Amino acid sequence: MDIAAMIEKGINMGIEYAPKVLLAIITLIIGFWIIKKIIHFSGKIFKSSGLDESLSTFLASILSVVLKIMLILSVASTFGVDTTSFIAIFSALMIGIGMALNGTLAHAAAGVMLMIFKPFKVGDLVIIGGGATTGTVEAINAFNTTLKTLDNKRIIIANSNVTGNDITNISGQGEVGVELTYGIGYGDDIDKARNIILDVGKNCPYILDHPTQGVVVSELGDSSVNLATRPFCKSEHYWDTLYYMQENVKKAFDKQDIGIPYPTMDLNMISK
To answer: How many CB atoms sit inside 10 A of residue 3's CB?
Structure first.
């Protein structure tokens, strides 16, 4: 075949397929834009229907994947690809990929479990893995859960790692008790220290009147008498309450000459 014939054949192929390629590109661009709008509109419908925000985000994520697959199949048909065969090949490919990426499928299954059992929802303050990760739930997606930490970092955790760990939902009950312990010296007045802690609690803008705050002697430690208290507040004010009490109890103790002892050791020297 001479060069002229090859060039002519290339031109003919270009003329034949260029419109299809251009149409495919335009279809993809417009299709992804439409899908984005559909997902945004669907999210509003899910929320207005009363669905939990976590479930709404999860359903929108699944819908996005399905629509994108349908778009790709539609574009493939413009090139004369038999979509029936393509679907069969795609299904077989997905099975193979699924066997290779069974961890990813486990994340998706874990996402479904999070939707069914709802250990938390978007907006809850949670601790994942016994204190390893603490943050506010931003989104529960098909494969991962996103948390926003107290220092404004974003942590993305695979769903199977979430369900496979201990989950502490601080916000889950609406109101939460803040566990606090203060050590005082053995020579300090317990009742005086108790009244100081209660007074600070009364002045805290976040602590609720009910249940009533109490202060008890929780332990006679090696170097301190430990007083425990558990004021209740709204879940969203957990950290505000904790930090307020820690700072202001220390200041009040200092003003009233109540010492917060540190570990000490007495050494007895025996001379021979």
So the answer is: 7
